[in-house]
Each structure stands twice: as C-alpha cells, then as structure tokens.
Design the sequence.
C-alpha cells in the first residue's frame, strides 16, 4: 500500500448507471451519443450519464473501458461508471479500469458478463486528488505521444497508397493505359490445408487469418505455432516473397486481404482459409504486385467475383483470370524502393511505439498494483 493512499470499494466512491434500450430516444438529430461497449452506436435526444464518465461493457467486451467527456446514453449491454468527483478524478478512474482485469468477475461460460453487485465490491486505490491529477497528467502524456506515433504510421501508409495511384493510376480502370495481363500468367496459386492439432506432433509455424490484421509484410515470427502429426509436402511450405490471400472467412471484411511473406528461414505453412500466390515471372516486382492487390478497387472486384453459399470467398479460378496492369519493370522497382524507404521509417516508429507501450504498462502497473 502506498503512503497516504486509501483503498475503498466502488460502492463508496462512484455510481453505476444501468444502460437502457435506446429505441425511444434515438434520433438522427440527437445531441447526445449513444454508447455500447464498442463505442458510439448512434445519437439520442436524452442522456443517462453525465460528462466525464466511463463506459464499461456489461456483456461481451467487458475489458475495454471507454472514457466519455460528454453526456451520453448507454445501451442495456453497457454500464455507465460515474465517479464521485469529491474523491476521484474521472480520468484516474478510467486508467484504473484500463488496468483492472474485469474477467475475474465474469459470470458466464460463453459471452462474458458482469453483474453490478460484483462491481460495487471492487476495491480501488484512492490517493489524494493532487496525486491523482499528477498520475493522470503522466499517463496522458505518454498516451498522447503514443497516439502521435500511431498517426505518423497511419500517414505513412496513406503516403504509400497515394504514391501508387500517382505512379500507376487506378489499377482497375487503367488510367495510364498500361500493358495488361492476368494474375495466372505471372503467378501460380495453392489453397492451404486445415491441420488437425496434435499435442504430441511436430511444431510448425502457420500463417492463419488471425495473423493478417493490418499488416503488409509478415515473417514466420508473426505466425501461429501449431503442433501437427501430418507431414507437409513442399508445395504447402512458404517461401520468401510469396503473397498470401484470405480466401474464406466468416468476417467478410477480411476476404481478399493479402500479405507478402518475408525472411522465411524455417519450414512454415498457411491455413486452409488462405491461398498462396507465388510469382513466376521476371516482369513483376513483388512489392508492386502486393500494393496493387491491396488497393480498394482491386479488392472490391475480387470479392464481388467470389462465390459462396453462406461464407464469402475468392478462389483460384477468380485469381487466375484476374486482369492486372503491368507497367515497365523499372517503374515498378522505383516504386518498390520508395515504399521500402517508407516501411523503414515505419519500422523505426513502430519500435519507438513498442518502447512507449512498455513504459506505459510499467507505469500503470506501478500506480495501480
């Protein structure tokens, strides 16, 4: 326990406001945001919680608190946590919630769920208000730098996209009248396999749908590790510069997403929800092709061409026949060199971001544990 700090249950220092169905207050012209555990859902002409409160999921996302500066309406799957400002700074409460593991109060076996009576028993540190403000100022400072770094990365990604369109135009409409070919002319394709886990089997790295996220480039260190008893033939092993697509997934937003595999120094494979694309032509630069395939125009055409009953998908037939523009190789290489410079800068920022996140985690742990 820290000197001059009190430790009190939530029932003594805050109020928990139950959410309500928003149907009767929802309005496109409402001035108050309607919050669920995932963020703003719509707007209302009335509110339940005052400004400077915390949203906490009652069901589902129970470990992702949100700090809200304005008055708001919370839906029936989210609690509004309102601090007693005579003893708790609102942002201090928020940081405590970020650090706290609410799963310890989960009462459900499937969808995580919290009960108000359990939350009111949570004991939290209550340092003097002047100390709380100093802690908030420190954590806000670190978070502001983290957000600035994330914005830098976002802008660099936008720069790479802009560079592609500037140099090559719209890849579907072929604004610059480039030579065209089909993906099947310059590459071969292979569907992945779904492997049966076997704890006594041999471990192997596997690129699965969960690895993709927003990455452009992945290496085996980013893959999942599976233990399988099956022996894997060479045709299912990845090589440097393979491009891998998500071909099928319950989340349609992931269909058609692609990554370039790099730094393959060990046996690794890819899951049955993916398709491997391996370039076999000297007329195409791998980085250029990846960025072409990741443009919103190409993804839109690819996914609209996919066929599936209950789950959207793309297939080898679609990819083989897909038309692509083929600018001069030297221009592709020039683009790739510029993108490499952008990615190098991103790598520096991402390294700094990881260091800042470690610092933030350390300071959160110091203040709240």
Sequence:
């Amino acid at each position: 326990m820290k000197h001059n700090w009190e430790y009190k249950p939530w029932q003594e220092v805050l109020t928990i406001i139950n959410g309500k169905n928003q149907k009767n207050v929802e309005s496109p012209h409402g001035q108050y945001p309607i919050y669920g555990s995932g963020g703003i859902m719509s707007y209302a002409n009335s509110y339940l919680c005052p400004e400077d409160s915390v949203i906490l999921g009652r069901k589902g996302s129970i470990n992702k608190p949100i700090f809200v500066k304005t008055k708001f309406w919370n839906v029936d799957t989210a609690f509004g946590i309102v601090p007693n400002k005579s003893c708790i700074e609102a942002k201090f409460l928020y940081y405590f919630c970020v650090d706290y593991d609410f799963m310890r109060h989960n009462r459900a076996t499937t969808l995580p769920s919290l009960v108000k009576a359990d939350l009111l028993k949570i004991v939290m540190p209550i340092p003097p208000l002047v100390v709380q403000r100093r802690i908030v100022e420190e954590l806000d400072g670190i978070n502001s730098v983290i957000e600035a770094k994330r914005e830098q990365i976002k802008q660099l990604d936008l720069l790479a996209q802009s560079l592609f369109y500037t140099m090559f135009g719209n890849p579907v409409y072929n604004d610059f009248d480039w030579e065209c070919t089909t993906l099947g002319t310059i590459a071969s394709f292979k569907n992945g396999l779904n492997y049966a886990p076997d704890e006594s089997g041999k471990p192997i790295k596997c690129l699965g749908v969960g690895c993709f996220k927003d990455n452009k480039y992945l290496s085996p260190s980013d893959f999942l590790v599976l233990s399988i008893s099956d022996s894997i033939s060479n045709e299912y092993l990845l090589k440097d510069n393979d491009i891998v697509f998500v071909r099928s997934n319950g989340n349609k937003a992931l269909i058609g997403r692609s990554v370039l595999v790099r730094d393959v120094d060990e046996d690794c494979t890819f899951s049955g929800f993916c398709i491997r694309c391996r370039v076999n032509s000297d007329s195409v630069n791998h980085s250029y092709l990846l960025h072409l395939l990741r443009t919103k125009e190409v993804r839109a055409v690819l996914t609209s061409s996919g066929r599936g009953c209950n789950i959207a998908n793309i297939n080898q037939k679609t990819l083989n026949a897909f038309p692509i523009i083929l600018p001069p190789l030297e221009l592709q290489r020039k683009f790739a060199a510029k993108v490499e410079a952008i990615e190098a800068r991103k790598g520096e920022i991402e390294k700094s971001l990881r260091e800042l996140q470690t610092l933030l985690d350390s300071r959160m742990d110091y203040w709240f544990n």
User: Anything to note?
Assistant: Residues 153 and 347 are 9 Å apart (CA to CA). The longest helix spans residues 129-168.
